[in-house]
Q: What sequence folds into this?
């Protein structure tokens, strides 16, 4: 040690470590203690501390007959260096020097530090001791140096280099659990580090010296020592110490093996099985894993301390018994609470392992009482049990019940420490899997709420959809599709793709999809709708960029009206010859760019044709021209399929098999069924009240011609209400249209731009009941604006599907 420096280096000296319990008995005796006091561990554990250690001042007893520093076995070294306590109470640390007589070594000088321990454990005092003779130089000045060395304490802030003691203290407390060791280290940090005082100006912090690792020493040993020759430095003092080294190495190798076998996947169910199988049969014969309900469901982090009402789900059970022995008695998937008197409840509430060396008949009966109509006593009685908590962020997620066969060595304190470390690693892995599952569930729920649930059949067309999340970017993205019912038995079809990925893109997609639905309900032409969507995106911010393809299918006219905003073109498969082609559309600029005009085109279609709209994630592969993907899309779309779902699966399977896809995919396929001309009837009515009677008569006659007589009464009443309201407010002739498709659609067009409102008419009101009647009798009704006024429509359910197409 360099006493001339202003910042002395930490003093590395071999330390003996002992722990005294609340009964004043030694409960822990380290290897260093065996070397310093030449007393085996078995002979020291359970002995009164005052018989072995010079710490009478740190353990004041009311009936202690020996004055401070005058205990038999050691001598006082004077008033300044005697074995005196720095504080007279247990709330303060103590330090001192003493001269002891030890077997085989004679008289030695011992420096010691004693820390009072508080908390729920039985530990009362932690004692660190060192051989003062090891600090004396070999130049004959030992006596002078020894007189200047005194033990003392210093706060860790005084010596930044002394933090190694706090980091390595758990290594010399191997028989304690992780929680107990952490509690003791925290108290040492609070009370101060041990130091050696050489003068009033020089105080050197003490850190333990473990010397050369045992494995390295053995590798250097070329031959065993000759008879009578002392063992090389670092070799064990006796066979017991060698066995302890082997046991510690075995535990470390086991934990290292377990760490490599668990956490290979973020799938929660797979992780649970990995954790259970990792400990059977090497560490235990039976391993049952129980988790809280929130963890099993992949929900948020469980709140609060578990209690007797907390349900624990048995999620895994591994054992070495004969197959099926445990399955019927304790099946996986069962949920149950545990009462307060069980070791399981003690483990889950304290967060510490619970060790039961042998399950007695009484305990077996108490545990078995929790299993209604099932007797598990033959499975557990006589076995050794260790219950370890599965924790993450100081919250108990679950616990593992470990059982050993009666003919196997019972669990001991070292197994409890090993189990605690195993549970700590397993808890972290399970929590990672839980959080990943939770995020996956949130993402899937968000995406499902964003995407519409489109019916398989709309007026004049069949629809099938697919959404595939990106393989590497999670389940949340900005791709979407939609189908909106329009007046005149038409259907709006849309596919869009917000640029980017993740939650921000999904949020933008939700806003744009809502805007499209709103503007589609206003029956805006495709180009005008994209213009309005582009204006909205610019108002929302410069980060709103998206491509969009919008099409309106008119089954009566047999045509598609399409406009494109930077999206890939759709594919049209002709029913006549099965030929597929990309529809030639003006590309347009993406939504959000601004200042670009959008153009629309009309494409005639026939009954049976199929329209395929998708996002670029389906056809685009990194390193490949997108034209190859579009050609593959055309070829796969032309493949004949008996059903729409089969056709969608063919397309996704063909294009996804190419590999390299990382983007989300939205696919919308529509079979354009059309509506036959004889399924549509239309009348032009003048602005005369008498026209209402003519409209009713025309509807009655047409429905009978369509063999829909059961609908005549309701249809007449609905048409009368709609035509009456139109004739009253219109300035030009009114158009009445009936369409017999999947439902009976009735539409009335007029040139009045004011939309009707459903009113709550009172008993004395003469008006306001027309739309109430419509709302009551119709399957569905609605209004929408048109270029020349408005359309009011309603639907009636057909009694049976007519076969006239």
A:
């Amino acid at each position: 040690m360099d006493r001339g420096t202003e910042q002395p280096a930490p003093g590395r000296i071999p330390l003996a470590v002992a722990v005294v319990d609340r009964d004043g008995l030694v409960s822990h005796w380290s290897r260093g203690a065996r070397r310093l006091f030449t007393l085996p561990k078995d002979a020291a554990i359970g002995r009164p501390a005052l018989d072995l250690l010079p710490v009478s001042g740190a353990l004041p007893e009311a009936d202690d007959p020996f004055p401070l520093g005058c205990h038999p076995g050691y001598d006082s070294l004077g008033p300044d260096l005697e074995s005196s306590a720095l504080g007279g109470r247990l709330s303060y640390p103590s330090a001192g020097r003493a001269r002891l007589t030890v077997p085989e070594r004679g008289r030695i000088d011992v420096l010691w530090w004693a820390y009072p321990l508080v908390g729920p454990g039985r530990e009362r005092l932690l004692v660190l001791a060192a051989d003062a003779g090891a600090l004396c130089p070999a130049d004959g000045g030992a006596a002078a140096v020894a007189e200047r060395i005194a033990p003392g304490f210093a706060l860790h802030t005084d010596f930044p280099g002394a933090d190694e003691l706090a980091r390595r203290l758990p290594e010399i407390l191997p028989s304690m659990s992780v929680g107990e060791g952490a509690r003791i280290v925290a108290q040492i940090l609070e009370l101060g580090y041990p130091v050696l005082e050489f003068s009033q100006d020089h105080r050197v912090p003490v850190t333990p010296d473990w010397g050369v690792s045992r494995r390295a020493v053995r590798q250097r040993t070329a031959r065993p020592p000759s008879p009578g020759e002392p063992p090389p430095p670092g070799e064990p003092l006796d066979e017991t110490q060698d066995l302890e080294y082997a046991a510690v190495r075995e535990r470390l190798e086991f934990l290292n093996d377990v760490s490599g076998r668990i956490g290979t996947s973020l799938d929660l169910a797979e992780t649970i099985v990995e954790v259970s199988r990792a400990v059977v049969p090497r560490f235990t014969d039976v391993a049952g894993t129980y988790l809280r309900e929130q963890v099993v469901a992949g929900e948020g982090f469980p709140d609060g301390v578990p209690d007797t009402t907390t349900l624990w789900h048995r999620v895994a059970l591994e054992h070495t018994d004969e197959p099926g022995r445990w399955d019927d008695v304790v099946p996986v998937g069962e949920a149950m609470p545990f009462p307060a008197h069980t070791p399981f409840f003690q483990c889950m509430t304290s967060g510490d392992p619970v060790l039961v060396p042998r399950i007695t008949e009484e305990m077996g009966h108490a545990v078995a009482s929790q299993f209604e109509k099932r007797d598990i006593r033959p499975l557990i009685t006589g076995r050794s049990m260790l219950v370890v908590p599965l924790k993450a962020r100081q919250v108990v997620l679950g616990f593992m019940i470990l059982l050993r066969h009666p003919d196997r060595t019972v669990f001991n304190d070292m197994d409890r420490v090993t189990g605690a470390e195993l549970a700590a690693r397993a808890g972290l892995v399970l929590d990672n899997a839980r959080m990943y599952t939770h995020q996956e569930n949130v993402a899937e729920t968000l995406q499902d709420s964003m995407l519409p649930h489109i019916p398989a059949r709309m007026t004049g067309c069949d629809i099938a959809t697919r959404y595939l999340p990106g393989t590497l970017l999670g389940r949340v993205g900005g791709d979407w599709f939609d189908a909106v019912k329009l007046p005149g038995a038409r259907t709006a079809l849309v596919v869009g793709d917000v640029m980017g990925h993740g939650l921000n893109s999904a949020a933008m997609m939700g806003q744009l999809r809502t805007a499209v639905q709103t503007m589609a309900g206003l029956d805006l032409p495709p180009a005008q709708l994209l213009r309005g969507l582009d204006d909205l995106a610019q108002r929302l911010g410069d980060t709103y960029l998206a491509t969009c393809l919008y099409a309106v299918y008119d089954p009566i006219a047999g045509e598609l009206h399409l406009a494109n905003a930077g999206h890939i073109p759709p594919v049209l498969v002709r029913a006549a010859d099965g030929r597929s082609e990309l529809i030639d559309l003006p590309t347009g600029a993406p939504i959000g760019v601004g200042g670009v005009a959008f153009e629309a085109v009309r494409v005639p279609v026939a009954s049976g044709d199929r329209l395929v709209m998708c996002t670029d994630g389906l056809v685009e592969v990194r390193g490949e021209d997108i034209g190859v993907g579009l050609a593959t899309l055309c070829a796969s779309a032309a493949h004949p399929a008996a059903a729409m779902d089969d056709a969608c699966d063919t397309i996704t399977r063909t294009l996804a098999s190419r590999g390299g896809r990382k983007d989300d995919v939205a696919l919308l396929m529509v079979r354009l069924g059309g509506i036959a001309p004889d399924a549509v009837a239309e009348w032009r009515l003048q602005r005369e009240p008498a026209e209402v009677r003519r409209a009713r008569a025309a509807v009655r006659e047409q429905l009978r011609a369509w063999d829909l007589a059961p609908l005549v009464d309701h249809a007449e009443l609905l048409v009368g209400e709609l035509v009456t309201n139109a004739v009253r407010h219109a300035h030009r002739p009114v158009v009445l249209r009936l369409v017999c498709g999947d439902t009976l659609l009735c539409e009335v067009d007029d040139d009045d731009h004011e939309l009707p409102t459903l009113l709550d008419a009172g008993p004395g009101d003469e008006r306001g009941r027309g739309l109430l009647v419509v709302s009551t009798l119709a399957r569905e009704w609605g209004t929408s604006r048109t270029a020349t006024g408005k359309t009011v429509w309603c639907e009636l359910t057909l009694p049976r599907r007519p076969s006239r197409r």
